[in-house]
């Protein structure tokens, strides 16, 4: 039997939001069960072991033929957007034709030796008929029970969280969520469930989190009992996964007793995130030490939940080498696998292209990742990412403004053992790029040190980014912020080391006649390998 079916331990997981790049939205009704199960065909033999499929949303509706919850669009009389209407028509048509969408997905994945994990929000949001009925995703329970909303919270952190979210302190709210996940476990031949515990947290007022923690733990205990009963009835292992903040100090603030969940075997795996919205961008430098230590020698697996948005001028999604770099850094810290956690991971649009397959093929193999090209990116704020900024591990190192004679220390993690691979003649190039904004190239003087070693000018190439124009799809039609890229072509004398690296940038001299601020906007490190020691260039084309 395949490894994943024998052990039940996936290595590479793809999150699917159930609509985008899935049958319900991509095909106009009438759709077939083959249409709906297309994701299993798409990822079969790609290196992906499991699908985490969005099945129950924040508004209380579900994307299957539930007996305990309303379907998408159940209370909608007039749609705000035709695509949401299309989702409802496709969903209802499948069910009327005798095909429960969740059953279709379970069978489609199992036929392709994929694990199927049904996912849902643990948070549920309230709303009003006037504002939310036309969206399709709100249920009568969510719309008609405003008394369950958290509402006003005097804590300043509450300004970053939606006030209409329901409080998990109410037994009615816990029961409503429990019944949905129970149904996913017991009614369907899923391989388990995934609890989305990172969206719109905490699930109560901030001063009530101490009350939430034991209730949340008991709620998960109840789910574990349900999973155990379903295992016996179906003869299929039922796993429980939880999506949590990666930083250990965030757990108590959110009301999560992670150590208890692990020690009592309440969860089979943890998806650890440091990005929580589409605006956050990729984070390759998340500290996973605490969660790896807690789960060591237990039955609980740890996955780095990798978000791949980039939001730079040339790429909406992180390039392939950046995804490999993030995965390699996570494996270097001891994780068991990688989850691609974007709600819509199609960097080149849909359907998938060969590049997507090439990317995921390596994600389950740290040995292959070791000599894959890497693009390490120091996390820089490129969007208005105020949400959940109060959570530990949410800070951005860049951009940084410097005055004359000021220095900035910037750190980044590298998984590569460059000295080792250089000894085997496998290194093709190592390039450290620093993008400066507002720099006056013929006057300003900058000093750069990597791990306390001064980088000499003879390995530096300066790239003028001022008024570079890009295609008109760009909002500004130009590369911003203006400035220069300093490209240092590193050699064995100044390679970044395996692990944590420290870059110190000092502005030694600044043109006093320029009002614009001098800034460090981007720091990147590109590493490229030769296929083998005799392989110098691309093969000849005949």
Q: Which key terms come to mind for this protein?
A:
2 domains, eight-stranded parallel barrel, Jelly Rolls, alpha/beta, disordered N terminus, 18 strands, 542 residues, six-stranded antiparallel beta sheet, TIM Barrel
Nutshell version of this structure?
With 542 residues, the chain is of the alpha/beta class. It has 17 helices and 18 strands.
- Going by CATH, the architecture of the largest domain would be Alpha-Beta Barrel
CATH domain topology of the largest domain? TIM Barrel
Overall number of domains: 2
> Main sheet, how many strands, which sense, barrel?
8 strands, parallel, barrel
CATH class of the largest domain: Alpha Beta
Class by SSE composition: alpha/beta
Strand content: 15-25%
Q: Based on Cα principal axes, name the global outline.
A: globular
Gyration radius, in Å: 25 Å
Number of helices: 17
Mean pLDDT: 91
Relevant CATH superfamily of the largest domain: Glycosidases
Count the E strands: 18
Distance between the termini: 43 Å
- The share of residues in helices is 25-40%
Model regions low in confidence, pLDDT < 50 over at least 5 residues: 1-7
**What order do the strands of the largest sheet run in, or round the barrel if closed?**
1-2-3-4-5-6-7-8
Describe what you observe in this structure:
With 542 residues, this protein is an alpha/beta fold. It is 27% helix and 21% strand. It has helices spanning 3-7, 23-26, 33-36, 38-43, 82-96, 101-111, 129-132, 140-143, 171-186, 209-234, 248-254, 258-263, 289-295, 320-332, 354-362, 366-370, 418-423; strands spanning 12-16, 50-56, 115-121, 192-196, 239-245, 269-273, 301-306, 337-340, 374-377, 400-402, 407-414, 427-437, 445-450, 453-454, 460-464, 483-489, 499-509, 518-529. α13 (289-295) links the parallel β6 and β7. The longest helix has 26 residues, at 209-234.
């Amino acid at each position: 039997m395949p490894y994943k079916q024998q052990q039940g331990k996936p290595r590479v997981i793809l999150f699917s939001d159930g609509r985008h790049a899935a049958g319900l939205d991509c095909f106009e009704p009438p759709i077939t069960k083959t249409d709906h199960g297309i994701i299993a065909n798409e990822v079969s033999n790609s290196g992906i072991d499991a699908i985490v499929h969005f099945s129950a949303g924040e508004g209380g509706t579900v994307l299957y033929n539930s007996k305990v919850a309303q379907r998408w669009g159940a209370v909608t009389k007039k749609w705000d957007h035709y695509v949401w209407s299309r989702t409802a028509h496709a969903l209802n048509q499948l069910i009327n034709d005798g095909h429960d969408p969740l059953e279709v997905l379970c069978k489609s994945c199992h036929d392709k030796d994929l694990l199927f994990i049904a996912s849902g929000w643990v948070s549920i949001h309230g709303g009003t008929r006037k504002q939310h009925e036309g969206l399709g995703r709100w249920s009568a329970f969510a719309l008609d029970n405003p008394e369950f909303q958290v509402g006003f919270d005097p804590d300043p952190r509450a300004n970053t969280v939606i006030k209409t979210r329901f409080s998990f302190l109410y037994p009615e709210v816990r029961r409503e969520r429990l019944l949905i996940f129970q149904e996913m476990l017991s009614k369907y031949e899923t391989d388990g469930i995934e609890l989305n515990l990172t969206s719109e947290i905490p699930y109560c007022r901030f001063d009530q989190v101490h009350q939430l923690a034991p209730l949340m733990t008991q709620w998960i205990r109840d789910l574990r009992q349900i999973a155990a009963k379903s295992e016996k009835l179906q003869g299929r292992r039922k796993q429980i996964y939880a999506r949590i903040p990666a930083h250990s100090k965030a757990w108590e603030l959110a009301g999560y007793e992670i150590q208890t969940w692990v020690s009592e075997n309440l969860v089979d795996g943890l998806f650890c995130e440091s990005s929580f919205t589409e605006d956050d961008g990729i984070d390759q430098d998340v500290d996973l030490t605490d969660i790896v230590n807690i789960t060591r020698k237990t039955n609980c697996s740890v996955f780095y939940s990798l978000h791949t948005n980039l939001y730079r001028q040339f790429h909406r999604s992180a390039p392939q080498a950046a995804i490999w770099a993030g995965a390699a850094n996570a494996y270097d810290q001891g994780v068991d696998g990688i989850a691609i956690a974007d709600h819509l991971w199609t960097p080149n649009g849909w359907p998938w292209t060969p590049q997507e397959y090439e990317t995921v093929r390596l994600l389950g193999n740290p040995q292959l990742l070791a000599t894959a090209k890497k693009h390490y990116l120091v996390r820089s704020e490129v969007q208005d990412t105020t949400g959940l900024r109060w959570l530990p591990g949410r800070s951005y190192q860049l951009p940084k403004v410097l005055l004359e004679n000021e220095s900035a220390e910037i750190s980044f993690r590298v998984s590569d053992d460059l000295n080792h691979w250089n000894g085997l003649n496998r290194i093709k190039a190592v390039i450290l790029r620093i993008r400066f904004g507002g720099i006056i190239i013929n006057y300003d003087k900058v000093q750069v040190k990597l791990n306390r070693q001064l980088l000499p000018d003879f390995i530096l190439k300066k790239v003028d980014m001022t008024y570079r124009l890009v295609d008109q799809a760009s909002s500004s039609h130009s590369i911003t912020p203006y400035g220069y890229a300093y490209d240092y072509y590193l050699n064995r004398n100044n390679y970044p080391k395996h692990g944590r690296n420290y870059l110190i940038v000092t502005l030694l001299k600044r043109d006093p006649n320029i009002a614009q601020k001098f800034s460090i906007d981007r720091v990147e490190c590109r590493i490229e390998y030769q296929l083998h020691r005799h392989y110098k260039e691309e093969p000849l084309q005949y």
